[in-house]
Amino acid sequence: MSDPVISSSSNNEIVSHIMHEDLKNSYTEIIKAVGEDADREGLLDTPKRAAKAMEYLTQGYRQTLNEITNNAVFSSDADDMVLIQDIELYSMCEHHLLPFVGRCHIAYIPNGKVLGLSKFARIVDMFARRFQIQEQLTHQIAKAVEEVTGARGVGVIVEAKHMCMMMRGVEKQNSKMRTSVMLGNFREDAKTRNEFLQLVKHG
Asked: pTM for this structure?
């Protein structure tokens, strides 16, 4: 008799359950490690809730570029700059596992293809929902847009506030970090780059 075939969806459910239990147990240990009673009423279900939240906040590890763009690339004669501004994002700093929150601005110059508008937000979310540093996040977003669209140029700016700067250490409440990546025409042509920067500045 042949072995039963396990569907990929069943496999994913098993993996998800194991991850949830591992996270839940880890949060229980953290609560105990800081000197709290993990069995008191207010904390009794906290490990389960925190595990569920962490699964959501790191779902980018379980997504692929092909899945999230879902073939939403269309032929187009457009060859002027396209700007998608103020895409909200949140991510987790890989150094302290504290959030950073901000906005992303993406511009590209089409080269025969355009990408469905909502897919830019999905690209940002996929890479943001991982343990990250902002510099790497900015680069990953730019390279992904370039890969999917085949654009003649891509520009990405991310500006964010980091809780690791606000809640601990130097505790600077108004500090903000800005990173940018320019590819293709945006890197090679100062006029294109400046147009992007001015649009973001005055948008």
From this structure: 0.92
